[in-house]
Amino acid sequence: MDEYFRSQVKRLGLSKPDAYTPYAAGAKLYGYGRSNPTSGQISSDGMRGYRARDQATRLRRQNSLSKMQAGQQYNFLSPQWLGAR
Question: Can you say how many angstroms the Cα of residue 3 is from the centroid of all Cα atoms in its chain?
């Protein structure tokens, strides 16, 4: 039975990706068997990238929350629902 499903998946041209997936079970290993993705000091330029990423994530989250709140109040013509920033 298992082989039948594998052949169907193969006929569709699908395959299991070999990339990192956060939903995988077990410990994650990076590089040469390390359990941490980064090792050593991070420069201030590198930290700037993290801050920019975190700020963009916070803005997306806030926009999503405000749109959700406007939708819950059936306020579909408000700037929050229409995506005005």
Answer: 32
